[in-house]
Amino acid sequence: MANIKSAKKRIAVNAKKQLRNKTIKSSTKTAVKRVLSAVQSGDKVQAAEACRLAVKAIDQAASKGIYHKNTASRKKSQLTRLVNQ
Asked: What is the pTM of this model?
């Protein structure tokens, strides 16, 4: 365990950031799963709407530094390609 005050603060700040990152990443994954289930069910309208929401969630996560910009771009590209097929 840390003894120095600044080290204790870093531990607390890192724990808070880790929780925020985990929450955002989890909600993004849920949005992606909604797209996949809509595509499997064959509902194009619902799949397109779910894709729009998932792309928005991925963009927000990338802007907060949770995903690298190239990773976010790849995920968005895969989703839109899947929906358009």
From this structure: 0.86
